[in-house]
Amino acid sequence: MTTFVLCAFAFLTAFIGASLGSFLNVVIWRVPEKASLMSPPSHCPKCGSPVRWHDNIPIVSWFLLRGKCRDCREPISFRYPLVESLVCFVALTFCASILFGGWTGTRFQCLSWEGFTNAFEAWKPILANEFSEASAESRLESQLTTFIFDDFIRLLFMTVGLSVYVTLLASVELMLGFVRFDQKQAPRSLLIASSVVVLLAIPMILWLNSSDPSCQIRRLWILVQSVVLGSVPAFVVKKGRRVEFMLLGATWGVVSGMILALPGSFLCLVIASVFRKKFGRDLLGVIFYVVIAFLLVAQFVFSLLF
Ligand SMILES: [Zn+2]
What we know:
Layout: H1 2-30, H2 60-64, H3 79-101, H4 113-128, H5 136-181, H6 188-209, H7 213-231, H8 239-256, H9 258-279, H10 283-305
Helix pairs in contact: 1-3, 1-5, 3-5, 3-10, 4-5, 5-6, 5-10, 6-7, 6-8, 7-8, 7-9, 8-9, 8-10, 9-10
The chain binds zinc ion (ZN).
The site of zinc ion has 8 residues, from loops.
């Protein structure tokens, strides 16, 4: 039974992740062109014929079609299944780490599969209204049950909410990376929004890592320094690209930690500009974004596991 539920859960997570990746593909192509995300519906960029629903299943369809348009047989970019698989992988990794890792400390003891079922068992009497008697003993038990009940609800919200949240964070970084790979310019509002969202994730990481306030403040201070150090190299860039590099460097600071913040950001900047001149495509830029996306997920996974 447990295996079946876990498989169902994994399948659902994978499907949501891949669908999110599919949407991300649309965003990557259309946002830099300032085109609408909703209309026109998905169509072949070469012959313009609309994509049928059964040819639009994330990851699977590309392989079934052998990477060619059904109508004009023109090749479809491998990037579609690649982005879908990346996001799918992020969602699965994160969900698994929540379900199996369990939460250290007293806050989320029930965040393991065993705790999950225990909490669920304890939840049943509430539904059956077995604790309506007001005797002292049952009151105590009722409090205990309410506690577990709270944990169960939290478990559910945290699993779903955190998974979606972290997957979104990683997706935004992947999207910016691929837009950059295309030598296009992401709108500045999107750049700023994505950085703000990543920076807002800091309190969450701190909170997951420790419940000790003095420890959290120390960590916060270290993170602030990392953000500043990461964004410093941007000042040597031309004015037009400075904001993007600053935000990128700041995000890098958050995910890499204090020691790597400055050298990593500087190295990326130097190598990226050399590569752009030499090969035309900003390969290093996209790798940097992908690394950030996965470090971001790793931050959360490690917060949960250790
Ligand atoms: Zn076509």
